[in-house]
Amino acid sequence: MQAFYQELTRDLAELQDKNLFRRLKTISGPPAEWVEIWGKRLLNLSSNNYLGIAGHPLLKKGAIEAVERLGCGATASRLIVGNFDLYAQAEKELADFKNTEAALIFNSGYAANMGIIASLVTRGDLIISDELNHASIIDGILLSKADYVRYQHRDLNSLETALAKAKGYKRKLIVTDTVFSMDGGLASLAEIVALKEQYGAILMIDEAHGGGIFGGHGRGVAELYDVAGRVEVNMGTLSKAFGCAGAYVAGKKVLIDYLLNKARNLIYTTGLPPAVVGSIRAALQVVRAEKWRREQVLLKAARIRERLQAAGFNLLDGQSQIIPVIIGDNENTLEFSRRLMEAGILAVGIRPPTVPANSARLRLTVMATHKEQDLERATDAIIKIGRELRVI
Ligand SMILES: Cc1ncc(COP(=O)(O)O)c(C=O)c1O
Asked: DSSP secondary structure string, 278-346?
């Protein structure tokens, strides 16, 4: 027993040595444009509350009404007795929002990716996955027992090579994030859809960071590129731009029925609490009605990107509300983040294994509701500290 704890201590010390040890920050108050951490008020450039609606009065009202009518817990798996009318309404509204036949809610994006992938492919099948896809996709792939090839990030030649080599598989599933969570770049969905059709594969997209932001109706990157109707499995989260929790898959009714029967992450878990589902319904209304939010978030992000790029930072090739400021080594990244915190700015450092080795970064995220002058001051501070630390 003693040896067990010694091993854990040694492994943690190793993480400390590599500047890879992680600890929690405790936030007091709502996750808004400004947050309070350890008694300090900080401009929040690290949350996925992109549209700034997590504290929207309509979302709160939706949650409160659901609690008052239905209580706090779903009390069972949705397939037993945990499926309130509220779920059916939310799923119908999600399908309307995504313009698909049907939709199915999962308890989180992580659970959805694991459940969907492991249900749709197995031994004898092949998954072709962008090398920078989210960890939940990778875990779903490992759980599925299907063969697995990674193509180079956003590289269509590499994807085509993998498709051309794939012989003798029963099913071929291409899977990609639509907005890469740590890089902020968009997948070339129109070209990916064309390739999957040419090679007889099916396509699953993860709109975790695209939903609510891109496309005329905020449906996501597939809407932006006008290919949504040609994507078999359209997954997205409700935990980011939508300001709630949970995730969905949208598509043909037969796909939804299939997943309801097969996805273990949905079958063997208690349904989301009514409060969450109530807030999801309200979030859909807000995203539909308040188009200015998705316009503002992208506009504000573009302005910051332009200034940081002009100052000489490496921001990769992004077009979204996620702006990675590449630093490289872990220690410098932590120091950058610490100095920003001293300057009243929360910009969390992201280190391996979340990002590839030697590409530690600050991941800046913009909210529609950030004040222009706060963002300008933060950009000034990032440039100043970048010069002090010789990042630029
Ligand atoms: C691309 C992507 N997919 C899935 C998830 C998981 O979503 P959730 O936080 O709802 O579990 C995330 C975020 O953490 C993500 O970035």
From this structure: HHHHHHHHHHHH-HHHHHHHHHHHHHHHHHHHHHT----S--SSEEEEEEESHHHHHHHHHHHHHTTEE
